[in-house]
Amino acid sequence: MQVFHNKSRVIITCNKRLSPYLQDEVTALGYTIERAFATGVELNITLTECIKLNLNLRCASQILYAIKSFKAVTPDDLYKEISAIEWEELIDFAGYFSVTSNVDNPNITTPLFANLKVKDAIVDRMKEKKGIRPNSGSDANKAVVHLYWKDADADVFIDTSGETLAKHGYRKIPGKAPMLEALAASVILASNWDRKSPFINPMCGSGTLAIEAALIATNRAPGLYRMNYGFMHILGYDEQAFFAERRILKDQVIKNADLKIIASDLSEDAVEVTRRNAKTAGVDTLIEFEVCDFELTPVPEDGKGVVVFNPEYGERLGVHSKLELTYKRMGDYMKTKCKGYSGYIFTGNPDLAKKIGLKASKKIEFYNGKLDCRLLEYELYDGSRRAPLIEA
């Protein structure tokens, strides 16, 4: 099975509501999208072409290369169909693999049972053909097989990513309630930021928004921070293809970028975490770090820019007076200190959003985990325009 050279259906998954930004990324890389849906896109490409996608995509989760589609009603049907695949041509018999799945079948009470049937079918086939069985487990750091099984329709994929692409590899210290890197990148791509003007991130937390902004502006791809992917553990892998793509990533980095990115937080610990994560990403010299109340975050007056807040949502504690005051102060800060900028507040609490006191020009839908969120956009007019309207 020459999977590295044969075209097949490829599904690139992403978290819900990130698909529009993933589509833009895939198209910009020169790929043709066959189908787009709420949690991803479908292409028709080779496994070798998946290497470039794995290294470049900021908004994706997994890149799945299809190897078989079939009908299966029962677990025994599943075992039979999986056993017929030439796994000895795909996985090293002395190697290691894991199985993941997305299952909605009335004959399966838990996806773990489906995973076990897939694992048994692969191991039994390999033992029959090679006389030795590969090791298997839950770690996704080697070869990964993915099963999609809904009712009687089943698809088996090679997960070319392995561990999720949604984490970009530089955040060694997560901090408190961090925003996932893929979500942070999508938030920035959804904003009006031109990648040149100032990017202000008060309440920076662990710094994911500020760091992703620096990475995007300097064209640093996620593949620069990772050296292990699922495709590396499939038979036929040529490491030269990986290193060739990685050289392209290094060559396309914009060096000596003239950027003004400011990350501030009241917590010294949070700012130190941001600084250390930024250093791991190689962008610490591009970010100004400030320990201060967000109202004291400096805003350059020369030209327009964006200011992005990701405050607490209060979803666990409910709305209380302290957070209400914080949201009102954010609105006041943007109105008085950020004239001429585009302002953004990412929140999962619509009641608190009403306390901002500004009328949002856009409400862009996102999820943070399972929490329904909005990226609220505010046009912060300068003195030549009317002041922002107060929301009723």
From TrEMBL:
GO terms for molecular function: RNA binding; rRNA (guanine-N2-)-methyltransferase activity; rRNA (guanine-N7-)-methyltransferase activity. Keywords: Methyltransferase, Transferase. CDD domains: THUMP_AdoMetMT. The keyword Glycoprotein does not apply. Pfam families: RlmL_1st, THUMP, UPF0020. SUPFAM superfamilies: S-adenosyl-L-methionine-dependent methyltransferases. InterPro entries: RlmKL-like_Mtase, RlmL_1st, SAM-dependent_MTases_sf, THUMP_dom. It comes from the Bacteria. Signal peptide: none annotated. Residues 62-160 form the THUMP domain. The keyword Ribosomal protein does not apply. This is Class I SAM-dependent RNA methyltransferase. It comes from Pedobacter miscanthi.
